[in-house]
Every structure is written in structure tokens, then in C-alpha cells.
Amino acid sequence: MCAYGEPNLDFLWESIKLAEEGNESVWAEEQRRASDQQNNILVLAGLLLVTSAVFITTSPPDKSLLDHTRRGPYLLICGAFGILMGGIIVTSICILVSRKIRADHTENVFFASTLRVYCRLILLSYPSLSIGVAVLLLAFGNALYVPSTP
Predict the structure, then answer these.
(1) Are 73 and 141 in contact (CB under 8 A)?
(2) Per residue in 136-148, pLDDT tens?
(3) Which ranges does the record mark as transmembrane (predicted)?
(4) What's the whole-model pTM score?
(5) Distance in angstroms (rounded) separating the CA atoms of residues 35 and 43
């Protein structure tokens, strides 16, 4: 569901079969929709990456209120930064591949075995999952600070 935003792959299989019969418009529309979805994920990951970079590179204005430079929060925010970088790289590659891939290649290569289908779904789901994990890390990294009482 994270990979294509659909509960199953029937829509994709139907567009592959229609493309084989000569109706390329359904395949092209499906690829455009998937590419647009991944572009939105890329924008969101980029915004979160900038947010985590700001937390990493700046000192807090009031350390008694929120100190994200302590070891625990800093490591969580750095982890979020790394996961988001990986998500951006994977999303960019998926966008580049999805723009050029043909229906027959998808059927013969990506859907040749069950393992390949699962690997493709995991690869396409990784950006969404990385954003979810990074948001949790950023939230816990900023909420981890407990001010000490004087």
C-alpha cells in the first residue's frame, strides 16, 4: 500500500496487459501518477531534511526550554538526517526509472518472480517509510530533553 497507494497490484497488471494490446495511454497515465506521487514524497523528504539540518547546525536560542545539542537528541536528529538522505536518493532513482520503463520490461523483469515483486514493493515503499521513521526520530529528538531543576 505504501508503494503505489493502492491495496493491491491489479491496476498495475491491467495497465501492463492493456499496453501489450496496444493501448499505451493507460500505462503512461499510471506511470505519470506514480511519478507525481514520488515527486510529492521527494518534496516532503527535502523539507524534513532541511529541518533536521537546521537542528544539527544551529544552537538552541534558549537551552532551558529546548536543548537539541545534547548527546541523545543530537544522535536522533543525525539519524533522521541520514535516513532522509537515503530516502531522497531512493526516491530520485525511482522517479528516473519510472519515467523511462516500459510495460513489457516491467512484466518480464520486475514481475518475473515473487521475490522480485516483493523487492520492488520494498524499494518503492522505502521513501514513505523513511519519512515516517525520520519524523519519529525528529519528534523524539526534540522531546527527549528534560530540563534539570536548579
Answers:
(1) yes
(2) 998 888 776 655 5
(3) 41-59, 74-97, 117-140
(4) 0.80
(5) 12
pLDDT tens-place string over residues 80-109: 999 999 999 999 998 988 888 888 888 888
- Cβ-in-10-Å burial (0-12, 13-18, 19+) of 51 comes to middle
41 to each of 16, 89, 92, 132, how far by Cα in Å? Answer: 24, 12, 10, 11
Beta carbons within 10 angstroms of residue 131's beta carbon: 22
Write out the three cell numbers for 30.
499510471
Alpha carbons 30 and 32: distance in angstroms, whole number? 5
In the DSSP assignment, the letter for residue 7 is S
Handedness of CA 135, 32, 122, 9 (dihedral sign): positive
Return the DSSP state at 147.
P
